[in-house]
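Format notes (please read before filing issues)

Several people have asked whether sequences and structure tokens are stored in separate files. They are not. Every record keeps both together, in the order shown below: the sequence lines, then the token lines. Line labels are part of the format and must not be stripped during preprocessing.
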Amino acid sequence: MRSKRRLLAAIPVAAISILALSGCTEQQLQGWLPTERGTTNHVNATIGLWVTSWIVLLGVGVITWALIIWAVVVYRRRKADKGLPVQLRYNMPIEIFYTIVPLFLVLGFFFFTARDQADIEKPTANPDVTITVYGKRWAWDFNYMDTQTKANSVYYQGIQAQELGDGNVDESKLPVLYLPKGKTVKIILKSRDVIHSFWVVDFLYKKDMIPGKTNYEYFTPEKEGTYTGKCAELCGEYHSLMLFNVKVVSPSAYEAYLDTLRNEGNVGDLGDQYNTNTNEPDNKTPVAAGADSTSSK
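Then the structure lines:
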């Protein structure tokens, strides 16, 4: 009899849950993250980790709220009560419960986060495309690297966003990073001056650009389109104007864009020689003023 009652009680709960989930929009099902599933090969894993974490935390919250309300109702003070209730120093089962359960939650979050992070950060052995991105106050340089012959690389030099007033910028003058759809990409991240952070919002992926240190990103863009990028590390007065766009195009369109840069004479590598930060560990002592040679020894 008791099992039948439980079953009857569970049916409306299940029906309400199914109805609630079926009414959710795609944006709600992916936790209101600013992207779509399948944008890159890593996006789905990030969405899954985010949404699952919130479901677990919501469950913990519901249980906690229910226990608080239950304790308030059951152990409320009645009119006939006199004096203080029985005082207890400890309750071993409850203390074990609220120690073990959070421990397992933390270990679970750590395990799944470490697993997904290791997969996202795993280097691609032989990427189809290698691009060196330099952050600079307050714009970006993109070097499309020819890994076989560095001199055959092509580049794009960007400028900071140009303000039009009323909080708007000239989109046509924003730096644009081109990526080929379906090709494995290796991004080499460097800074020319201070700490920046390379963030493509829809890719759910950002990483710091630290002077004197090289960081890397590995991913495969899987949907054509234009995506917003920005610096995610406060880097100075015009940090808010350090914007760029990412265009994921077909491989043929990508190669055509590289040919356009080549025809414009943007051939070579805009490397570390253009860095403005001279106080780095690997820098050599500058030539003294008035010296005959300008080459460092």
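For reference, the curators noted about this record: Residues 293-297 have pLDDT under 50 and may be disordered. The chain has two domains: 2-78+86-121, 129-271.
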